[in-house]
Amino acid sequence: MLWSINCVDKADMAAKRTELLSVHREYLKKWHAVIFFSGPQQSDDGSQNIGSLFILNVPTRARAQEFIENETFYRAGVFEKVTITRLRKGHFHPDLADAQ
Known about the structure:
It is built from three helices and four strands. The radius of gyration is 14 Å and the shape is globular. It is α+β, with helices and mostly antiparallel strands. It has one domain: Alpha-Beta Plaits.
């Protein structure tokens, strides 16, 4: 089943994100088999990352919780708020992601 993990950054976390980016990417590689989608959320003008979104295909909320509690940015205190929500796939058009 799919789980959405929506993370909102604390203020002024750009430098911390940059510092931890390579470690963060290594962590994501360990979970590659279950990451349906992941990416940074950005300000409207795209000038800064303001959070992260992860969509995982894992069997339980506990497994999604395990993922985020061990995630690099989470452990470093980058996130102000994290919400985990079960998700059911509705419309799916991956070709639109690169349409612009």
